[in-house]
## 1
Amino acid sequence: MKNPIEILEKLNNTHSLSIEEYELLLNNINPELMQLAANYACDYQKQYYQNKVFIRGLVEFSNYCRNNCLYCGIRRDNKNCERYRLRIEEIIKCANEGYDLGFRTVVLQGGEDFAYSDEDMCHIIREIKKAHPDMVITLSIGERDRASYEAYYQAGAGRFLLRHETANPALYAKLHPKELSWEHRMNCLKDLKDIGYQVGAGFMVQSPGQTNYDLAMDLKFVEEFKPDMCGIGPFISHKDTPFAKENSGTLEMTLFLISLMRLIYPQMLIPATTALGTIDAKGREKGIQAGANVLMPNLSPVSVRKKYSLYDNKICTGEEAAECINCLKGRVNSIGYEIITAPGNRAGFEKRVE
Ligand code: SAH
């Protein structure tokens, strides 16, 4: 068996490993290996994105959810969750404010809230596109029918984020209630890609019961499926969920995985997530230095921010969007990078994004 450094070099050269080789890298995580992976990752980051970091404005428009995922703070059975639902005009207003702040892409995210019909979603998308044809709209609203996904795409949505959560069906079954199926979620991702969306997959790092082999399966999935974006963050417990007492994922493993993903698919969009910023005060900066190239600050009205509580101690729930951007600009500049407001397609993406 080769040593971890040789395997890392193989990954850097071929962008492909076996699941066992990925697992071996994860089992041998140490500061030296992490630094080497980050160095290689930053070479690709510079090649495709220079020192530019894309920003996406996140509008968390509803925390009603029909699902009962065991890890998530807005799960259906959490009676302590104070529910809110932004009105259609409020959602459009958030997008408009984002545009005025310089955002050229907005992410509409929520629980699986079917109070918004397909008509409603299409109306929101059309109104935003009508006012700002150069704004790219991303949806992150969970699993819906293919026909619905097609309708949103026709209405003008160009991207869709749907984390696969884990590439191992057995682990998926431990993290989710019986009525949710790994196969269905994976089929949604395939449909979205097939329809023409730029697609974001993603997974939680060190969720309860997850092994390095499971994470290695996630890396293999990224290698094979090639999502345009892959969002990862540490699992963080939420006090009102069945996983309240579980340990959170680590900064180190999340950073290492970011670097490995940059080597697996050098052009991929990789966000430094809010969850990463929550477990470490400089988590997002460290994420960028490990190879990430996207930040997703919050555009939701401050009055609802704390209520979109997926996990405990989430950061950035107090400031106005404009303050958030200034804070982020300072953070990004402090490490020699620069925020740009362009829509930020994946390098090499050629399909229509309007
Ligand atoms: N309802 C949408 C949006 C989900 S929220 C959907 O189904 O896609 C966005 C992501 O937050 C989830 O995909 C999950 O990976 C992450 N998340 C949820 N609970 C979390 C927790 N406790 N710790 C870390 N990440 C969490």
Note: The mean pLDDT is 97.
## 2
Amino acid sequence: MDSAKLELDGNTYELPVTVGTEGEVGVNIRKLRSESGAVTLDTGYGNTGSCESAITFIDGEKGVLRYRGYSIESLAQKSSFVEVCYLLIYGELPTSDQLEVFRHKLTYHSLLHEDMKKFFEGYPPSAHPMSVLSAMVSSLAAYYPDSDDPKVQELNIIRLIAKLKTIAAFSYKKSIGHPYMYPRNDLSYAADFMHMMFAVPAETYVMPELLTAALDILLILHADHEQNCSTSTVRMVGSSGADLFASISAGISALSGPLHGKANQEVILMLEQILHDGGDYKKYIAKAKDKDDPFRLMGFGHRVYKNFDPRARVIKKKADEVLSKLGIQDPLLDVAKELERTALEDDYFAERRLYPNVDFYSGILYRAMGIPTNMFTVMFSMGRMPGWIAQWLEMKKDPANRIHRPRQIYTGSQVREYKEISER
Ligand code: ACO
């Protein structure tokens, strides 16, 4: 399959076709406008490939997700978050020496410039940590300027991953009025984050190994998801030549929306509401189906997955395992399971192929770790960071890349004459 034909207004246009390594077909319309004057219209970009990418493969029909060819299930079972960061950014799994060097760099770049601590003082305690996170990431550019030198660029990438957990934990400490805890070099990425979140100067905090391992898995499962809303934003902003920190900060802002990353927070709020309302989940299923009611079942549905979200499967199993091993009874887990069971038996959800997504059960695990609900999307950002970086780098290196500038179909008034205000 080399080309496709488009007939428009009596003319035929031959459009080249690009086929991906997994057989995905892309009709290349790059010259369509210059040759025919027409553009395509695809609101929400559901049928638009914005780039060629070698990072992540998703088959939404079969529930397949792979990073650089490796299945998400095998990475969650055998790998570590730091190794997955390396894989996404450099394209290959590291040797043990490469992994050690990378881990060392991530450990030794986790301190924040002391002046940045003053920024936290300016936020009210009620500030949502996602607003703080995107502002602080954007501010990193003031301390670590962009450069075309690949070594500086690489160092900035290391700094970003390393400092993100410090920024995230500091924003939480600030919100509860506790002193900031500095990063510890003897801890793993996940354990260090939990130390900065929950230790106090008077005592250390040690998270049970089971929870540290679960957190690492959650970070792996969130690490990339090809051209979703936040990743497309990172590429869009980066396409103008904006620096790494500005591009990623924009991605964090995109992730903060309830239809995207903030759905994990919304799921817990929804489950709590159902519980407080007497646990009548059927009432909420009915609300979600009612087109006159704006309520949606949060954590359900996905633009790409139409059978199941493979990340949700791994997370549900892990949540079950962790809670039962630690003897934690979380009534929200019971509500979530009942809600899922009832929705999956309902024609409305079956016909629209709506299944639990990554956000449906992740909050249950975060709760078990003691992470407050408004930090859930920050956790998502920490996981997604290597994916955003890998996509930004790929975009920068792609010779076909040019500033992202979609077209539109104008539907407003045709030209009209301006009238003085006295004549209106
Ligand atoms: N509850 C009830 N109905 C739903 C839901 C839901 N969660 N999701 C989709 N639908 C219905 C829509 O009303 C629509 O019905 P219709 O055909 O009768 O009009 C149909 O299913 C298709 O939905 P769209 O909104 O067109 O699907 P889209 O691909 O644009 O949206 C999205 C996907 C945003 C994820 C949507 O399913 C949703 O809002 N889910 C809840 C929020 C959520 O969990 N977001 C996290 C997604 S994963 C992530 O970003 C990390």
Note: The CA atoms of residues 132 and 171 lie 7 Å apart.
